[in-house]
Amino acid sequence: MLISCKSTKVGQESEFKIGHDSVNLYAFIGEKISVIEIDPNENNTRIEINSITGDTIRRMSYVMDNGFKNKYKVVKNVFNDLKTDTIEFVAYDHYGRPGFENYKNVILYISLNKEKGYFYHQKYQYDPIEKTKNGTWKGLNGESIEKLFNEKKKGVFTARGLFDE
Description:
By secondary structure, this protein is of the alpha+beta class.
């Protein structure tokens, strides 16, 4: 009887997945394929014509972070559905390389830039995870996927305005 109850609970935790189409956030368990550094300032020049003088104006912006093009296998959707088995996204990190690249499996949090048509990583937000002997996913300190997600949701993602308080 005890084994049956425990199995039911584990099954429920491993199946945690929620969605909300109006929230521009995707959380998924990812397995690293590649993390490649890119120049974040490539193509940052915009040419405009001054409407009064007719002069050509060259506007340049500079990103002070390191940029990375990332490719991950989507092992399991956690929040919203990416509807793909692999995903590419851009990440920026002011301190060097992104911390998530040090782990084989992580919960990654990304959003879609609809104007530019690509996904970007929610800066510094990830949770290292590992698969347990019984096949479920847990944080490195034993946290459930649900707990890890809800901590981010109630904390940083509410502060960033993705969720209401």
